[in-house]
Amino acid sequence: MSYVTARWNDAKILWHLMVSRIDGETHADRLNSFYEGQAAGYDQFRRRLLHGRRELFDNLDVPADGTWVDLGAGTGENAELWGGRIHQLRKGYLVDLCEPLLDVSRQRIRANGWSNVEAVCADATTYVPSEGEVDLVTFSYSLTMIPDWISAVNQAWKLLRPGGTLGIVDFYVSRKYPGEGLKRHSWFQQNIWPVWFANDNVYLNRDHLPYLLDRFELVHLAENEGSIPYVPFVKVPYYRLIARKPVR
Ligand SMILES: C[S@@+](CC[C@H](N)C(=O)[O-])C[C@H]1O[C@@H](n2cnc3c(N)ncnc32)[C@H](O)[C@@H]1O
User: Fold this and answer.
1) CA–CA gap between residue 71 and residue 175 (Å, rounded)
2) What pTM did the predictor assign?
3) Of 3, 33, 54, 165, whose CB has the highest number of CB atoms within 10 Å?
């Protein structure tokens, strides 16, 4: 992509992020309205905004001959992060409610010839694949866009077999008094980022991480901060979590 094309793409995405109105009666309508004009340039811009996705997939074990569900999969770029390991999966489901992003996901599946991967239009809070139980569920920057995020986490819990793995990477803010071992963010981060992102219906939440740590057995947690394209000097917090559904 030429320099001019890349900057033009950035300008269009920034317009949708900062100016364009999000309309719609239902959550799905609002997602379609938000992403319709962004789908083609989504990956190019989000690679510089949605940090830690590669690191998450590098640190996840592919469930060999198992099932993976990516909830809020968007354009399906996570599937590429498996590299050649994707062929070890029996089945991968890229689940999203937004048709313009699902179209990109379907094109990606076709272009890569992945016969074991399927893009599915469904709500992450209720989706159940034909297999019933699965080995791995991931959310990358989707939990913050799902209004009923508790139902989405509970659904991931229901889908996972005992001992199954949950992988999440997303923005967040800390509680004012975070639990032991967790980072405490500055006043600016705790208070300004949630307002900033809410403009795009992205809800940075101080309860996501505590709830996940309460329900699942922690395998690995990294708390980091990442830059935002065209916004100098400030960084937004994100976490990477790998956890397990307990075997009881
Ligand atoms: C910021 S995007 C992240 C997409 C992708 N996971 C990535 O890392 O690029 C959030 C995604 O969550 C999806 N989403 C939001 N609410 C959803 C829901 N209830 N069910 C399924 N997908 C949902 C959106 O359509 C969008 O694709």
Assistant:
1) 25
2) 0.94
3) 165
Tens of pLDDT along the chain (248 residues)?
A: 788 888 878 777 777 777 778 788 999 999 998 888 787 878 887 888 899 999 999 999 999 999 999 999 999 999 999 999 999 999 999 999 999 999 999 999 999 999 999 999 999 999 999 999 999 999 999 999 999 999 999 999 999 999 999 999 999 999 999 999 999 999 999 999 999 999 889 999 999 999 999 999 999 999 999 998 888 888 999 999 999 999 97
Give residue 248 CA to ligand 1 midpoint distance, Å: 31
Q: Is 162 exposed, middle or buried (0-12, 13-18, 19+ CB in 10 A)?
A: exposed
Atom of ligand 1 nearest to the CA of 42: 9
Superfamily name and number for 50-244:
Vaccinia Virus protein VP39 (3.40.50.150)
